[in-house]
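Dear Dr. H.,

I hope your travels went smoothly. While you were away I took the liberty of generating a structure for the chain from your last submission, since the lab meeting agenda had it listed for discussion. I wanted you to have the full record in hand beforehand rather than looking at slides cold. The sequence, exactly as received, is reproduced here:
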Amino acid sequence: MLGKQELDAEKSKEALVPICAVLSDTVVTVSSIDKEELSAKGYGKIENNKLELTSCEALYLLSKTVIDIKDPKSKQKISFEDLLKRFQAVDKDAWVRYLIYRDLRSRGYVAREGFGKDIDFRLYERGDYGKGTAKHLIFGIQEGQPVTLEKLARTQRYTQNLKKNLVLAVINRRGEIVYYSLSELNLK
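The corresponding predicted structure, in token form, is as follows:
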């Protein structure tokens, strides 16, 4: 008969078993019962009874060993580096978006894929996911890559029309991220 400590150790081993996911082209899906739990925590979207993860979500969950991703053709596990290379083949900014996503998640926020041409993420306040819409929109900027004032102004107007707050996520060459809230500027 197992004692309490042995039972607790067995339960913690079960909790550490990664969720199985499958990569098809550049889409990572989870079809197990665990998809509901991941969805409730703000990951992916359910399509055809499968949870489809964005590239940032898949990279983040893989880095945290929450999921194992297998290639259906080779039946081999895919490493973080290999997955990143696949995503970078279709999105040159995949690494930068992942760094911003990882930072936001590590701070306790739920970040969902953005919409519109220049919005990287929708950001939900801690504890607000599932209770309404996101209050903030994240616009990622890399140090050394110029962004025109026209583009910033257009993005700010778009954000204000949606009654959201625009947050600039500026990532420096070392991968550190600083956030700036952008507000309306009226010059007359």
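Two observations you may find useful: Strands lie at 19-24, 27-30, 45-47, 50-53, 67-70, 110-113, 121-124, 136-142, 165-171, 177-182. The CA atoms of residues 114 and 149 lie 21 Å apart.

With kind regards,
E. W.
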